[in-house]
Design goal:
Elements lengths: L1 E5 L3 E4 L2 H5 L16 E6 L5 E5 L12 H14 L7 E3 L2 H9 L12 E3 H9 L4 H12 L2 H14 L22 H14 L11 E4 L2 E4 L4 H4 L3 E9 L3 E10 L2 E10 L2 H18 E7 L4 E8 L5 E5 L4 E6 L7 E6 L3 E2 L7 E9 L2 E10 L8 H14 L6
Parallel strand pairs: 1-16, 13-17
Antiparallel strand pairs: 1-2, 3-4, 3-11, 5-6, 7-8, 9-10, 10-11, 12-15, 13-14, 14-19, 16-18, 18-19
Helix pairs in contact: 2-7, 3-5, 4-5, 5-6
Length: 390
C-alpha cells in the first residue's frame, strides 16, 4: 500500500501491490550455518539477507589478502603502478616462505616478476610470498605496507579491521570482521571492474607449477566469479564469494567451518538460499513523479515530487505483500521552492526489515507570490482551505 501523508491530510493510493505482481508464494524460511561468522548481502540494494556474529573481529586468514589486492588495484588505477612493472624476489623473502608452512606461488630468489604475475599468484594461488614481494616492492618493508593497509582501511570505512602483514599470516593483532570483508569485496567489484576478472581464474601456473583456485563456487555454481578463500588453525575454513544471476549479485563472507568440504557445502547452500528466497523489486524510476504537492503562496498551484534515483528494495519473495510505502511531507509546501530541493521523505517498511528512508525532491520550482496576489491567495485559503491557495 502506498500512502501520501502530510500534517494536514492523508491520501491513500492503492497501486503498489499490482506494480509488484502477485506471483510468488511462501515466506523465506529461516536458515542456519555451521560457520561461526557469516554475512550474505544483496549488493545492488545493500540488503543483508542473513548474518551471524558479523561484527566480531576475527583472524581473517588469507581473506585479508583482499586488502593487499585492493591497495594494488588502487595504485594501478591511479597510474602509480603498471601491470608490467617488475619486482625482484629477495633472498630473505624466498628463505622465509621456504621455511614456513603456508601457500606460495613458488617464487625463487632473484626472480623478476611482473605485478600482473604477482596479482594472479595472490588471487588464484593465495601466494604468501607474492604478498611480501608486493609489499616490499611498493613500501620498502612489511611494516610500512601494513601501515598503508590500515590507513586505506580507515579511508574506506572498515571499522573492525587491523592489519599487521599483507598475507593474513596469523598474528594476534591482525583482525577483520566478516562485515568488513564483505564491504571490501563490494568495493573491489564496484571500483575495479577492469581488474576483477582475475578472481574468476580457475588455475594459474608459475615456475612450472599449476595450482587451482581454491574457491569451490567457481567450479560448482553458475555465475560465481570471486573472491578469496582463507584457512588457519585458529580461524577454520572461510570464504569471501560473489555470484551474479539474472541481474542480481550476492556477496557472501563466512569463517569458521571445519573442513574444505564443509566450506564448499555452506558456500553453495547459503548463496543458493539468497538467490532462491529473495528478490529485488523496482518501486520507482529515477525522475518519476510520486505525487503533486500543493504550494503555499507560490506562483504554481502544485509542484511534482520526484525521486532522483531508482528506488529498489530486496525482500523475501512474499514480504512485499505486507510492505508499506509512505510519502511524508509538510503540506502545503511554502514558496519559494527550488527544483531539486529536498521536500519530502519516502518511507518503505516491511516485516523483518528496518524502515528505509529515501529523499524526495521538488521536480519544479515555484517562486513566492508578492503584493496583491499574495493577499488574495491567503484570503482564499481562509475561505476554501488548500484548494483555494492559488
Amino acid at each position: 500500500m502506498f500512502q501520501s501523508l502530510s500534517r494536514s491530510a492523508v491520501y491513500v493510493l492503492i497501486f503498489l501491490v499490482s506494480l509488484l505482481g502477485a506471483g510468488d508464494t511462501g515466506a523465506a524460511p529461516p536458515i542456519e550455518t555451521a560457520a561461526r561468522h557469516a554475512i550474505l548481502i544483496e549488493m545492488e540494494t545493500g540488503a543483508v539477507l542473513f548474518e551471524k556474529d558479523a561484527d566480531t573481529p576475527i583472524p581473517p586468514a588469507s581473506m585479508s589478502k583482499l586488502m593487499t589486492i585492493y591497495e594494488v588495484f588502487a595504485q594501478l588505477k591511479s597510474g602509480a603502478l603498471k601491470l608490467d612493472d617488475t619486482f625482484t624476489v629477495g633472498v630473505d623473502t624466498w628463505r622465509k616462505w621456504r621455511k614456513l608452512d603456508g601457500s606460495t606461488m613458488f617464487l625463487n630468489a632473484g626472480d623478476k616478476v611482473t605485478v600482473e604475475q604477482l596479482l594472479r599468484g595472490i588471487i588464484v594461488q593465495s601466494g604468501n610470498d607474492a604478498c611480501d614481494v608486493i609489499a616490499i616492492g611498493l613500501a620498502g618493508s612489511i611494516e610500512t605496507f601494513a601501515d598503508w593497509l590500515n590507513q586505506r582501511a580507515a579511508q574506506i570505512g572498515l571499522t573492525d579491521s587491523h592489519f599487521t602483514n599483507p598475507s593474513g599470516w596469523p598474528d594476534p593483532d591482525h583482525r577483520m570482521s566478516v562485515r568488513d570483508i564483505a564491504k571490501l569485496s563490494e568495493r573491489l567489484i564496484r571500483e575495479f571492474p577492469e581488474y576483477y576478472h582475475y578472481f574468476a581464474e580457475k588455475s594459474y601456473t608459475y615456475a612450472g607449477v599449476r595450482q587451482p583456485n581454491r574457491n569451490p563456487l567457481l567450479f560448482t555454481m553458475e555465475g560465481a566469479d570471486g573472491l578469496k578463500t582463507g584457512h588457519t588453525e585458529a580461524s577454520g575454513y572461510g570464504l569471501a564469494a560473489s555470484a551474479q544471476r539474472e541481474g542480481r549479485r550476492l556477496v557472501l563472507v563466512f569463517s569458521g567451518t571445519s573442513s574444505m568440504r564443509e566450506r564448499a557445502r555452506e558456500a553453495e547452500r547459503l548463496m543458493s538460499y539468497g538467490f532462491r528466497n529473495f528478490k529485488t523489486y523496482k518501486l520507482f524510476d529515477a525522475g518519476e513523479v510520486i505525487d503533486n504537492a500543493v504550494v503555499w503562496l507560490g506562483d504554481k498551484e502544485t509542484v511534482p515530487l520526484v525521486v532522483e534515483q531508482d528506488v529498489k528494495l530486496t525482500l523475501a519473495r512474499t514480504d512485499r505483500r505486507d510492505m508499506t510505502v509512505r510519502l511524508v511531507y509538510d503540506a502545503p509546501l511554502p514558496a519559494p521552492i527550488e527544483k531539486g530541493q529536498p521536500v519530502a521523505v519516502l518511507e518503505v517498511s516491511a516485516p523483518d526489515m528496518e524502515t528505509v528512508q529515501i529523499p524526495v525532491v521538488a521536480g519544479d520550482s515555484s517562486t513566492k507570490l508578492t503584493g496583491f496576489k499574495r493577499v488574495k491567495a491567503a484570503f482564499n485559503f481562509l475561505l476554501w482551505g488548500a484548494s483555494g491557495l492559488n
